[in-house]
Design goal:
The protein is of the alpha/beta class and about 230 residues long. Helices cover about 20% and strands about 25% of the residues. It has 5 helices and 11 strands. A hairpin with a 5-residue loop joins strand 10 and strand 11. The longest helix is centred in the N-terminal third of the chain and has 10 residues, at about 15-25. The chain binds glutamine. Part of the FGAM synthase complex composed of 1 PurL, 1 PurQ and 2 PurS subunits.
């Protein structure tokens, strides 16, 4: 089992992700996007960062790297794909997930701890959590506000494809618990299948016990699912 962590020009959370996966005993390697996806890839992590300086739109240029066509094919074949932060922006730009992450309501870069509520506990990325469990995970983004047309969001909600919502410590959602103005407090969504997910907060920064809370471990354990 090897998770390919795809590095683009400007990725900066690839090594954090590698260390976090290594801590969980999940084999992972960093792959330069121009080198293509290794044959033995059993999972794909799109890491955070500022690919191509966030120019044009965050994630827009990385999403057009030829490797992303291979990632879409792998996802369609059932290979688990997780996009984190800039990786979530890339995932949406590449059409793996719907909607877009755009400029925070504050118009500022925000780096803080937030609380998340797992809206599903029957997906590979959340089966480690109890229903209604609140987890603490850091965010670090300038363009994390989830945006999508009202009709499409209603459909996504009907299809149960919202994976995480921002909430307070008790699990309540609301403007005070939503750090960036994301529509309906959405912090992460599923793709066409439950094995594809993106989220704006950083589970890999909430995995190593020496660094702080370890609530993000459950998300990364999604790569262990059969
Ligand atoms: N930590 C990150 O991945 C940064 C996300 C992104 N490039 C932003 O600032 O919106």
């Amino acid at each position: 089992m090897t998770v390919s962590i795809i590095r683009f020009g400007g990725s900066n959370c690839d090594r954090d992700a590698e260390r976090a996966l290594d801590h969980l005993g999940i084999d992972a390697e960093i792959v330069w996007h121009e080198d293509g996806l290794p044959e033995d890839t059993t999972g794909i992590l799109l890491p955070g960062g500022f690919s191509y300086g966030d120019y044009l739109r965050a994630g827009a240029m990385a999403a057009r790297s030829p490797i992303m066509a291979t990632v879409r094919e792998a996802a369609a074949d059932g290979v688990p794909v997780l996009g984190v932060c800039n990786g979530a922006q890339i995932g949406c730009e590449a059409g793996l997930t719907e909607g877009a992450f755009t400029t925070n309501e504050s118009a500022r870069f925000q780096c803080e701890h937030v609380y998340l509520r797992a809206e599903r506990t029957d997906t590979p990325w959340t089966e480690a959590y109890e229903e209604g469990e609140v987890i603490e995970v850091p965010i670090a983004h300038g363009e994390g506000r989830y945006e999508i047309g009202d009709d499409r969001l209603a459909e996504l909600e009907d299809e149960d494809r919202v994976l995480f919502r921002y909430c307070d410590e008790t699990g309540e959602t609301g403007p005070d618990a939503n750090p960036n103005g994301s529509k309906h407090d959405v912090a992460g969504v599923l793709g066409e299948t439950d094995s594809v997910a993106v989220l704006m907060p950083h589970p890999e920064r909430a995995t190593l016990p020496d660094v702080g809370p370890t609530d993000g471990q459950g998300v990364l354990r999604g790569f262990e699912s059969p």
